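Running this now, will post back.
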Amino acid sequence: MASTSDIRKGLCIRYNNDIFKIIEFLHVKPGKGPAFVRTKLKSVTSGKVIDNTFSAGHKIDDVRVETRKFQFLYNDSETYHFMNTDDYNQIELQKSILEAPELLKEGELVTVMTNSDDGIPLSVDMPASVILEVTHSEPGVKGNTATNATKPATLETGAKINVPLFINEGDKIKVDTEKSTYIERIKE
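Update: finished.
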């Protein structure tokens, strides 16, 4: 058993007969009244996100988890295949458990959290950023850069994001996996 002081991003807890992963939290201590913790919880079984408020000192049932590095191999529609980098065992995960499956490139390393009790995968943590190649993008219009103008671009994984006008087809860019946004162009 843990309490609200142990709440952190990525913690898995048992709540309402389901297992949830904490994706956001905020400790609030108002001028009047008791302190509380506002959380955003994501169900690891259904992917549904709920908001919940715990009063300070509330006991929460945390789930013991193990984290292991897995390499993404391939996907066939809704099923994604990964290989453990330590013992080369392969696992299959459904698309719903992944945060940003459209940014996964073959060979990418991810961290898979599994329940220590029964070995069931709970969540997949992507790296903070990935480097992908732009496969399609309209040419930028010269002189149209008075503001932070962007244009749509298609990446090698099929994901579509907005990029600055100077990005062209064939450029490699760094993409933030949490927000699916452009970070920078990679020089070779």
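The chain has three domains: 2-62, 65-125, 129-186. More later if anyone needs it.
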